[in-house]
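Checklist before submission:
- one chain only
- standard amino acids only
- sequence pasted in full

Submission:
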Amino acid sequence: MSRLALATQTSPLADRMRPKTLAEVMGQGHLTAKGKLLYEALEKNRIPSLILWGPPGCGKTTIARVIANKTKYRFESLSAVLAGVKEVREVVVRARGELDSGGVGTILFVDEIHRFNKGQQDAFLPFVEDGTITLIGATTENPSFELNGALLSRCQVMVLEPLGEDDLLTLLQRAVADKKVGFGDLKLNLAPEVLPEIANQANGDARYSLNLLDSFVDVTSQKIAVGELLNLDDLKESLNRRATLYDKTGEFHYNLISAFHKSLRGSDVDASLYWLARMLHGGEDRLYILRRMVRFASEDIGNADPQALAITLQAKESYNFLGSPEGELALAQAVIYLACAPKSNSAYVAFKKAEDCAKKNGSLPPPAHILNAPTKLMKDLGYGKGYRYAHDYEGGVVTQEYMPEPLKNEQFYQPVLRGYEREIARRLEYWQKLKGSQGEPKP
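Returned file contents:
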């Protein structure tokens, strides 16, 4: 096929190279291999409604089309970005008409199904249940979070994996060699490192890898025409490096912030910096990251190093003052401090215990002796009677009950013997000894 002939094709390389059979689908052997779920469903011609969950370019649309072709179903496709309930109902009308006339069943493929709201998702339910349509939804987001339970319970969820670099390299090599739908007739003269680099940059996305190759061939057409060797410099000229795979509102957002928080908690400074860099590079809101860091400083470090909270707040002020990218160094500095600080969740645990106790015991009144008595009536009722002024006692502490009577001797806070909390533990122990030896207040 000549370059001129290729230029007249309207479909991109990724579409031309789309697998036609299950055996041609790459990277999803856990579903497509003989004996596996999808293979067996096709062999028995019993296709349940499916939710295909996986990253971009892993083969969700391809698998839906293969299923339709193999089972001879009618295939209709909607994008949840563009369609609504009206379009769904139109598909249902056509599907019913086909069945009523003795025709075949209909597969409705809905791309980005997570973008349908609850009401739109509910529109599928009766028609999935009565078999009018077989629904195949594709999503890059966790179905547990994005799909309502009623719809999810009527579908089989299949988890697809990103393609490995070896799979992508094989796919690219096929595209270069294929004379019918690829670039075989062009006899591309590629340096050995070009296709591996495209596979590396595609980040597991087959469609993206083929689009990169397509663009690369288009940009270097003059060099191809004279048989010139194409190398990495040519590749760099023809494409911009792909942004890090990141979705600020989806599962990647939650996965990365979770990895970041747990790396800090585990005192792994290098991993903490890596996940910070991933989030920054992916465009995450810097103030969101800082809010999580402030939370971490209280929840996971607490009084083991009281400076952690102050330093994190200072990082926020520095970022607000400098902005990006200069202010991001303040985030990195604070991350290093948080990762290297002694850890304690004692404040977090103590507060949770206090919260639970408050909810469980209701509105218990304070002991009368620690209440103010600004009026005669309140004094007559015993408010403030017997109160001991702590400063009148050695060490500034006094034996006195501050809790409601039913909660006497309750203890929420248990400092760890790490960092500054070791000093707090010693102080609490010293105060207990003082209280045990106290007499009357000093004059």
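Reviewer check: The two ends are 106 Å apart (CA to CA).
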